[in-house]
Amino acid sequence: MSEGTALRGALVLEEVSITSRVGARLIDRLSLTVAPGTVATVMGPSGIGKSTLLAYVAGFLDRRTFAAEGRVMIGKERLDTLPAEARHVGILFQDPVLFPHLSVAGNLLFGLPRTRWRSRAQRRARVSEVLAQAGLAGFEDRDPATLSGGQKARVSLLRTLLAEPRALLLDEPFGKLDAPLRAEVRAFVFAHARERGLPTLLVTHDAEDAEAAGGPVVALNGPGGVRPPCD
Ligand SMILES: Nc1ncnc2c1ncn2[C@@H]1O[C@H](COP(=O)(O)OP(=O)(O)OP(=O)(O)O)[C@@H](O)[C@H]1O
């Protein structure tokens, strides 16, 4: 994708703490700056609060279950006071989420801002362009159910990027892919994040993912056990 490469500001977490309503502190005063085009990694044992942290940043933390404090910002703009839909943060999960009743093109058209791509012909041309760039030329009319895992992952990323997010959150999006495909999809996702200047926060259990990400690594170890980010 060629446009959208302007730097959009760092993703900044300031003194973020998240506590479950039953009293367990998951995240304890975490501060982190993810520069535009950088992929930072959050690691830690299962159940420590990695996905919960991403939910807080994205704006869909379940407030009946968790209390949270601390600032989330893009550049100087505060996000944590905005509803999720106003944050313009893209998120990818382990299972690519595609609408099963829409074609591949239908899924991608869904993410495309109509204010920018006004005519249907323009929108369809844009969809075909990004599919071709992703090695998926001619996939417009395919049913998502007929795609391989790697193809689904790429379509899911394209749809997220077409919505022009200001930051990208990755919740183990490579977790179910086998090793060669994992490396390929990972490279695809990171290349897009870098090219678009998106600050990106990756949650993973995999040290190879963290190494490939190349940015700061935060190790969550439970209350009081957050190691400061290191390069
Ligand atoms: N909706 C919920 N209601 C109650 N507890 C929850 C809810 N969602 C998560 N939790 C609990 O919060 C804690 C953190 O969960 P979270 O999913 O953030 O962990 P994680 O580090 O991402 O784990 P994993 O690596 O296994 O995905 C866990 O103990 C989990 O059981």
From TrEMBL:
Keyword list, A-Z: ATP-binding, Nucleotide-binding, Transport
InterPro entries on file: AAA+_ATPase, ABC_SmlMolc_Importer, ABC_transporter-like_ATP-bd, ABC_transporter-like_CS, P-loop_NTPase
SMART domains: AAA
Pfam family, one: ABC_tran
Family: Belongs to the ABC transporter superfamily.
Keyword Transport applies: yes
Signal sequence annotation: none
Molecular function per GO: ATP binding; ATP hydrolysis activity
Keyword Nucleotide-binding listed: yes
Origin superkingdom: Bacteria
Protein name: Putative thiamine transport system ATP-binding protein
Lineage start: Bacteria, Pseudomonadati, Pseudomonadota, Alphaproteobacteria, Hyphomicrobiales
Limits of the ABC transporter domain: 11-228
